[in-house]
Amino acid sequence: MQKINKKGLELKQDLIKIVKQDVEEIKETENYAEIGKAFDFWLLTNYFDLDKETAAINIVDCPNDKKVDAFIEEEENIKIIQCKFFNKIEKEVGGNEIALFKGCLDWLRKPEEVKKLNLPRLYNLASILSERWNEGIEVQLHFFCFW
């Protein structure tokens, strides 16, 4: 295990502070009602390096979405993303949440099941995933947490 010295700890705390400020700013400037969607946007633009328009289009986060917050379709792969943004360090993410997210893959591969929920956007994405899955596309699940 790597030892974190005082300077390293201060740098880490500074980085956490910067990310939180960025996410709060995105919430305001992009008019997101929820901090979680702002974090989705931050991840898509910073980690996945999407431009603002593409990031906004790729955010799925809605009720009954089976933990799918974003869906990125690329030529060589599809990325399904779950993001958690916590304001309290006491929050924990357990194996159940990760297993539930992993289960979204089986669900999304059955577009007719998704259609029953009357979520047109997710139904469209499920149709894309199902078709591309049958073609042998690589599918990646990404689970992010930030405290």
Set out the fold topology.
Blueprint: H1 6-29, H2 35-46, H3 52-58, E1 70-73, E2 77-85, H4 95-108, H5 111-115, H6 120-134, E3 138-146
Parallel strand pairs: 2-3
Antiparallel strand pairs: 1-2
Helix pairs in contact: 1-2, 2-3
* N to C succession of SSEs: HHHEEHHHE
Number of domains: 1
Uncertain runs are none
The overall average pLDDT, rounded, is: 86
Q: Percentage of helical residues? A: 40-55%
- Rg over CA atoms, rounded to whole Å, is 17 Å
In total, the number of strands is: 3
Q: Given the structure, what is the number of helices?
A: 6
As a percent range, the share of strand residues is: 5-15%
Largest sheet: 3 strands, mixed
Give, in spatial order, the strands making up the sheet with the most strands.
1-2-3
How would you describe this structure to a colleague?
The protein has helices spanning 6-29, 35-46, 52-58, 95-108, 111-115, 120-134; strands at residues 70-73, 77-85, 138-146. The protein is of the alpha+beta class and 147 residues long. It is globular, with a radius of gyration of 17 Å. A 3-stranded mixed beta sheet has the order 1-2-3. The chain has one domain (6-146). Strand 1 (70-73) and strand 2 (77-85) form a beta hairpin.
